[in-house]
Amino acid sequence: MERPARGRHRLHMVLLIVPLALVLLAMTALIIWSVYTPTRLQRAIAEAAEAGVPLTHEAFRAKWGEIPDTENAASWYLKAFDLMHAPDTDEISNIMDDEAWPHGQEDLPLAQDYMDRIMTLLDDKTDVLDILRTARDFEKACYNVAIDESELLLPHLSQARWCGRLLLLAMLAAVHEGRADEAVGYALDGLALSRSLSGEPLIVQSLVAIATLHTVVEWPLSAALGSPEAGESKLAAIQHALFEYSRDFSLRAAIEGELVQQFTQYDTLVTGILEESSGTGWARLLGTGYIRADMARVIEHYIEFLSDLERPASEINAIWEKRLAAIEESYWLMVKMIAPSHSRIQAQGENARARMQAAALSVAALRFYRREGRWPDDLDVLTPDYIMEMPSDPFSGRPFIYRILDDGIIIYSVGTNGIDDGGRPHLMATSEQERRDCDYDDVGFRLRLP
Length: 450
What we know:
single chain; 450 residues; mainly alpha; 2 domains; 3-stranded antiparallel β-sheet; two-stranded antiparallel ribbon
């Protein structure tokens, strides 16, 4: 009888020891976790400091500085934005959605009744156009972005886009009426407006800057440049503005500002969990531990993202492909949510740069054409008389592709796919079927002569 009793005793001991061992193991893991996660976060914070990446609003303002109102173009732009009312934006939308809206120079001249609608709108918004012209003379801009714990107040972004569209309509009207110099002037106003948004502390503001750029560097600008009425001084001015903006365009301030916002939200979240959570201390420790580790990975990701800005765009696709694959296999939720959009944003930024450089090279080639009576055989002949330094295609690291056509020229980048698609889909005729079925993404500028 002793052996069964002894066996039961051993079973009871096992049943007691195993749960205790599991609890001790879990407690040990949590203690290690509680030590590891703050350490990892502090290491990431130290890496950010070493890289000069701010994590607080105070550090961001100290790095990027503030602009006095007397030197700030944003104070003028905000006045223009305030004058864009709902009936105005509705009419702009109606005009651009109308089936009479032109999609290229081949659609000119426009029907008179359609032009009358455009001119009526422009006559009513001369005050806005005048303010936009005044704002162009200021080199710096800084919009006051109101940030609290839960909300970003960015009402100016929508109005900025409407002002960009208004400038496009003004360019179109000037081209229609043969006022080429005036049309180029409106393009300069649009570039200045886009540039005013490009150094702002949130990525969404950079995206609006890019959208505004694409609005004005369009075929009406090509039509104005190709007109004999466009003077040499205006050509030189738009070429300089395009090259200068392409050189200075950067997502750095936007990326750093976005990280500051992420870090602020993290701090608020952790503080709220620690102070207000009704759960157990261990549950709070587990939750805040994961959040700390996740935030550390976010900081590391942003540092990597910022370092990518210094790399040639031709290398970025391969880097992002590997990075996104590794992130997808990880268990860091916040990075999983933000990283895919970051890869697209960087591509859009380089796309905008390529578009500006191609347009500037087209203007330089046009100036050569006017002086020599022929298009340059090669873009290299433009240096140093027409441009100081020849830019490279951001996506290939090689020269921009240059082709002479029957009615002008096209200059373009191979885009993110790295393949010469012959200028398609935007610079050369492309069927709707091709647009749907093919991965064309060349980006550049087409300049047509009358």
